[in-house]
Amino acid sequence: MLFHGWGELGRCCRSCWETSVDVRVVSVCSRERISHRRSVFSREAHSQIEKRRRDKMNSFIDELASLVPTCNAMSRKLDKLTVLRMAVQHMKTLRGATNPYTEANYKPAFLSDDELKHLILKAADGFLFVVGCDRGKILFVSESVYKILNYSQNDLIGQSLFDYLHPKDIAKVKEQLSSSDTAPRERLIDAKTGLLVKTDITPGPSRLCSGARRSFFCRMKCNRPSVKMEDKDFPSTCSKKKADRKSFCTIHSTGYLKSWPPTKMGLDEDNEPDNEGCNLSCLVAIGRLHPHIVLQPVNGDIRVKPTEYVSRHTIDGKFVFVDQRATAILAYLPQELLGTSFYEYFHQDDIGHLAECHRQ
């Protein structure tokens, strides 16, 4: 070493040099330990931040999945991408369902209101009518009602709809006019799991939500021209009463419930004390004559009008898909059949045979 042979001074210098080296080594080690600790602390802090971010995101994803009916119905846990995709689809559905049909942009600009009404009635082959939900008062009916019921507009407007219904159908129509039932009524079934999908859509006063739709059959009086007959033509008093009795037509009414301010309906609020400035709930619907299938035997065979619909079922017989044509045949809406078993609609005498065929 450089300090060898220097005596006491050399030993002191050597000791100082070794001490200085030790200090530098300790200092370097301390800095490394501090740097390592800082790195570990930084990684732990970053890990904690990432964990909190992931937990918060997972919490939001779970909350979003609970709000989307299609996600809520799934038995297995969905990945985040699937939840987001279903949420986007659900929002698109809601945006399409909440656009009111009365908006001006729903109608082509080149068509007037009268032209559009004429085209709709011609395509529907029926008559348009508006009925107040509170009293069943006919607020509007199109001129095409004359072709079906043989009543003019002036005969029906302002009258009570219940006066023109079959007595046995009045209660059913009153139930359809119940304006309190504007929440979604459809039972949505997931096609994969067969489970009921929950819907929590709260409709606004101007929205056309799915629960506001109405579709029902009822019998209405048909004002057919009467033919004068002599008393001798009636074999009995009972037959004469039957001849004087008005005939009824089966009308298939499809439409929706909607609320309007009384001023928009052309009503004077002063003449309607029960409204108290509230919106007037009405049924807007198109009535179509429901054709009756007449059985005509020809050469011993019965020829019937071909009527069929398509449905899909689970292994235990529950409806998971129903064609729209089922309404005209069964008088049930597709959403009323979804989730129910077809055994509920079979005749009791046929259940045993059909169950045997089902097992095979």
What CATH architecture of the largest domain do you see? 2-Layer Sandwich
Distance between the termini: 104 Å
Portion in beta strands: 15-25%
CATH topology of the largest domain: Beta-Lactamase
Q: Which homologous superfamily in CATH is the superfamily of the largest domain?
A: PAS domain
Rg calc: 38 Å
Organism: Clarias magur (Asian catfish)
InterPro entries: bHLH_dom, Circadian_TF, HLH_DNA-bd_sf, Nuc_translocat, PAS, PAS-like_dom_sf, PAS_fold
Subcellular location: Nucleus
Main location: nucleus
What is the secondary structure topology, with strand pairs?
Layout: H1 8-67, H2 69-72, H3 80-97, H4 113-124, E1 126-132, E2 138-141, H5 145-149, H6 153-156, H7 170-176, E3 188-189, E4 196-197, E5 213-222, H8 237-244, E6 247-260, E7 280-289, E8 296-298, E9 301-303, E10 311-313, E11 319-322, H9 326-330, H10 334-337, H11 348-359
Antiparallel strand pairs: 1-2, 1-7, 3-4, 5-6, 6-7, 8-9, 10-11
Helix pairs in contact: 1-3
